[in-house]
Structures are given as C-alpha cells and as structure tokens.
C-alpha cells in the first residue's frame, strides 16, 4: 500500500503545510467497483472526505477520520482542507471527479500539482453507452449549480445533448426552457442507476429510465430519480434555429431601440475575435447583444456587461438567459467609474458613452498586449473623439452604412440606417 504523502507548498520560508489530496472516483456499484489502486488509496487515508452517500459506500477503517463536505461548499472548503493540513487526505467523488465534479473545484483551489485524481468511469460515458450515442454525436452541458437556460446555447433541430443534472427537478426545468424556445416535442430521457449492479436496478441489466417529451416534463407529468443524467433529443422547431455565427436576427432580442443592429454587430465581433476562455467588457451594453454573442461563440467565453440604466440592465439579463448564456455578468453603473475593480478584459466593446470623459482611456488602459477594442459612434461628437483616438493610437477607422429595402408607394426603395463610425484597435 502506497498512501499519498504530505508535502509543503507556497512560501518555503513559512511552516504552513497542505497535504496533497487524492480524489477517488466511485460509481454506483460502490466498493465492489473499485480497483486495487483506488481501494489502497481509501484504506491508506488518515482522513476521508466526501458526500454522506459516498462515505457510506466504503467500509469502515479503524482510526480513520471521516468528514462530509461543508455546505455551502465554496465557503467552507478552504477551512476544511486547512483543518487537515499535513495529513493523508482522500476525497470520494462520483465517477470521473473532473467531469463537473469536486475534482475540478479542488484543482482550482489548490493547483493541479497538489491534486491526484483516480477516476472511475464517468457518468457521461455511462450515459452515452446507455443511449448508444457515439461521443462525436452529442454535446455535454452541465447545469450542476447553474442555470438551466445554459442548455439553450446547444439546442438545434436533431441535436443530441447529455445534461449533467443538479437533482430530480432538472428535467422539468430543462423541459420548460425547451418549450419556451419552441422545442416542446423534444424527447428527454432521465437515466438513473448508471453503473449500478444489476440487482439494484429497476430492471435487471437496464438502467432506470424515465422517458417523456419536453412538454410533458414541463407539465409535471413525469418524475426523475434524484441522481441521473438527462439525455435530450432535440425535435424540429417551427422557427429558423439560431446559429453561433455573429449577427443573430435583431428580433432575437428584447430591446427599446438601444440595440447594436445585426450587420454592425457582426462587424464588431469579427474584430473583437471571440476566443475560448477570454473575457469581454461590453460597455454601454444596451440590450446586451454584443456580449451575448461573444459568449455564444464558445462555452468558456465570458462577458461583463456594463449598463447605466437599471431597466436595460435587467433586459440584458433576460436576453442572456433566453439565448443560452445565463452566466453573463451584468454591472449596473456608468463607465468609467463602473469599470473599476473588474477583471482584466481580453477585449472591450464600447457601444455607447465613448464621449464621456475617461471612458476610452479606462478601456485602453485595461487592455493587455493582444487585447482588442472596438468602439461605435453615430454622432458627430463621437466621430470626432474616435478620429482623434485613431490619430493618437492607430488601429482601423471605418464608416459603415447599411440600407434596407422598404415600400415606396407601390414600388420598393432603399431606406438607410444611421451611418456608424467604428474604431477598432489591437493593443
């Protein structure tokens, strides 16, 4: 038996120590499903952490101290780990601890060099096997501790999704979101008892399944087991699906006229260049369209929308939820003061307020090398500010004019929108 050894980290001049922590994945088959390596880790632990259900799946070990995860986890976890510093600590987690599990939380808190993970088969792999879905034919979305509206980013006719659920209420919540989006006929299968021994299943050799349409789940006509993975087969929808390419139809947004229109939005996002994991400041967000489409470009893209008007700020939140990016952060306040203390952005879009003293300077100062800035203006005053910024800093200055057809009596003519001056800069 080779248990994990304590080791020191951080400032070598201090005496503070934190144990390396081993995270052991355990399935619904419990102790019987653990291989020798994972069993040795559990038996060799001085301290065993985990949920109460997981702790009950392994045999008692003489002299071993056991503790359940604190609630709320984020607030209590640092103190719990500090209390066992210098001891051999093992944590139990469901399946693969790095698939929307405690493993990821511990890595973010302690760093990857202090976390050793011994995974079991993940719930995602078990769910794919149960449904017969190859990995490249389905997407995985987690709503564990998150808003179920996040599912909508992945929705398209005929698409398959595996949703990592929070609890037995998740299928109804997802069903309601799909009904709102026009996909009431989608099939939702709640898969319980994944990986459990045959004797523990509802039917021998078969996982517990509850199958119903999104509409039926939303109406409360089906019940799911508390622990499950939700398989979603998206039905066809009467409306044209919303894509991930920049420039969603203006009608996709609730707005009061303060909206970066479709063609201008596509131009701005082409220059902002959404990249996985990066953060955008959407300053003077209006309806939030640029920040929303930045986040729709990739699940790891993040946005902080800054909007002075409280009513518009709440509208940004509604638009973000309906378009599948409920994690978008909204700051109600006026730039540049509202920008103080925000995380450093990788890109900034200024859709309004560029003439306010200090706004452009604050945005430029916040950008790191390689950061992108795009500013739009429709007034002569803003155009003058952008022309001066272009001469001072360089970049790209563009005037964009869009015309659309409209009736002219019994004929058809062109109706121009306001010309927009766009200044784009890469730091």
Brief summary of the model shown:
This protein has 427 residues and is α/β, with parallel strands linked by helices.
Can you give a write-up of this model?
With 427 residues, the chain is of the alpha/beta class. The chain has three domains: 116 residues, Cobalt-precorrin-4 Transmethylase, domain 1; 109 residues, Tetrapyrrole methylase, C-terminal domain (Methyltransferase, Cobalt-precorrin-4 Transmethylase, Domain 2, 2-Layer Sandwich), CATH 3.30.950; 177 residues, Rossmann fold, CATH 3.40.50. 26% of the residues lie in helices and 25% in strands. The chain has twelve helices and 21 strands. Strand 1 and strand 2 form a beta hairpin. The chain starts with 5 loop residues before the first strand and ends with a strand. The N terminus is likely disordered.
């Amino acid at each position: 038996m080779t248990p994990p050894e304590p080791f020191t980290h951080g400032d070598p001049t201090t005496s503070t120590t934190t144990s390396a922590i081993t995270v052991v994945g355990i399935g619904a088959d419990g102790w019987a499903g653990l291989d020798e390596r994972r069993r040795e880790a559990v038996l060799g632990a001085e301290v065993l952490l985990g949920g109460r259900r997981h702790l009950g799946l392994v045999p008692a070990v003489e002299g071993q101290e056991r503790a359940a995860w604190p609630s709320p986890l984020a607030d209590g976890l640092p103190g719990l780990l500090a209390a066992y510093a210098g001891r051999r600590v093992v944590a139990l987690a469901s399946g693969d601890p790095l698939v929307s599990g405690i493993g990821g939380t511990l890595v973010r808190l302690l760093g990857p060099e202090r976390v050793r993970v011994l995974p079991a088969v993940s719930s995602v792999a078990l769910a794919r096997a149960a449904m017969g879905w190859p990995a490249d034919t389905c997407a995985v979305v987690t709503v564990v501790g998150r808003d179920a509206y996040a599912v909508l980013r992945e929705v398209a006719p005929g698409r398959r999704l595996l949703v990592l659920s929070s609890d037995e209420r998740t299928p109804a919540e997802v069903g309601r979101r799909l009904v709102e989006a026009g996909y009431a006929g989608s099939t939702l299968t709640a898969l319980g008892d994944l990986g459990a021994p045959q004797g523990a299943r509802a039917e021998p050799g078969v996982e517990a399944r509850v199958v119903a349409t999104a509409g039926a789940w939303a109406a409360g006509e089906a019940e799911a087991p508390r622990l499950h993975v939700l398989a979603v087969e998206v039905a066809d929808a009467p409306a044209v699906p919303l894509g991930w390419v920049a420039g969603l139809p203006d009608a996709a947004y609730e707005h009061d006229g303060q909206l970066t229109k479709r063609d201008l939005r596509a131009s701005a996002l082409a220059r902002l260049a959404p990249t996985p994991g990066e953060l955008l400041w959407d300053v003077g967000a209006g309806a939030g369209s640029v920040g929303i489409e930045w986040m729709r470009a990739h699940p790891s893209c993040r946005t902080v929308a800054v909007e002075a008007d409280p009513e518009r700020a709440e509208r940004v939140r509604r638009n973000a939820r309906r378009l599948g990016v409920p994690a978008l952060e909204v700051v109600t306040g006026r730039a540049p003061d509202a920008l103080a203390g925000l995380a450093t952005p990788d890109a900034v879009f200024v859709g309004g307020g560029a003439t306010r003293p200090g706004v452009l300077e604050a945005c430029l100062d916040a950008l790191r090398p390689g950061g992108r800035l795009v500013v739009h203006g429709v007034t002569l005053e803003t155009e003058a500010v952008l022309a001066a910024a272009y001469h001072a800093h360089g970049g790209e200055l563009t005037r964009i004019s869009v015309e659309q057809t409209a009736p002219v009596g019994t004929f058809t003519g062109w109706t121009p929108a306001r010309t927009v001056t766009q200044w784009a800069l890469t730091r």
